[in-house]
Design a protein that fits this description.
Elements: H1 21-50
Amino acid sequence: MLYDPEGAAGPADEMPTSSYGGVIGGLAALIVTTGTCACVRMNRWDNEYDG
């Protein structure tokens, strides 16, 4: 633990933090949705031309 004799440094809990959790979660959901749609389309295309 560090010692601050003059009290110039504030507690670490008061430091502003930014989180990209929502952005990362949204991008992950978009990628999964896009992949699912692509797989469904490829499956339909394969079934149509296998006939």
